[in-house]
Amino acid sequence: MVSPVKSARAIRTCDLTKRYGASVVVDGINLTIPAGGVVSIIGPNGAGKSSLLGMIARLLPNSDGAVIVDGDDVAHTKSDVLARRLSILRQDNHLAVRLTVRDLVTFGRYPHSKGRNTPKDFAYVDAALDYLDLQDLAHRYLDELSGGQRQRAFVAMVLAQDTDYVLLDEPLNNLDLKHARAMMALARRLAVELGKTVITVLHDVNFASVWSDTIIAMRDGRIVAHGPAAAVINEQTLRSVYDTDVTVYETAVGERIALYFV
Description:
Blueprint: E1 10-20, E2 23-34, E3 37-42, H1 49-56, E4 64-69, E5 72-73, H2 79-85, E6 86-89, H3 101-107, H4 110-113, H5 119-131, H6 147-160, E7 165-169, H7 177-194, E8 197-201, H8 205-211, E9 214-219, E10 222-227, H9 229-232, H10 235-242, E11 247-250, E12 256-259
Parallel strand pairs: 3-8, 3-9, 6-7, 7-8
Antiparallel strand pairs: 1-2, 1-4, 4-5, 9-10, 11-12
Helix pairs in contact: 3-6, 5-6
């Protein structure tokens, strides 16, 4: 499942804007995300994080500007081509039909197989199930699983799609500390072991700080800061992003932790 990453690959947004009537939720963003590593998008509710991710994945039409993935404008890229290059796990990943874990993960192969799965497709399914430690649950129905198990199943579906770019929209929702940490460790493994570019929307700035190579901080539809944790996870930036008091501590190994409970 390893996909080689070329240094020229990147996601770029050019004056990317999203409006709902007179309300601007993403405001002329120009951004370059080079291939490779874990990228976290943080910011308060209503900052435009999920809208930005949705436009990158072409799930949400942009009002102005463009999204360029590996040199191609997503607005003019064929759906099956884009789906082999970029995958997304949305917040609202609920299904109206009753599926087993294996059935769900097999859906990830549709852009490649068009529903006519080959032994190669099933090999990707099995590899994704193995990678997410789901083989023992493969024949269980999704509605029989815990929240953490369901989330892993949906990530396995995305992984089976075998794209260079993996977009995760608030993947820590409804997860306890153990499973949230495991999810971020998985994002790191996807980047390091499989060469994926993982872009995730997070509410917890400390998970973003510890597990990300790059952090994008947003507020009011604009980018406030963009860079490594050391450049973004600081008191001045976080206070301007969240409009609240934050104290940042540096651990003995150089990780930056934000305290905002008191």
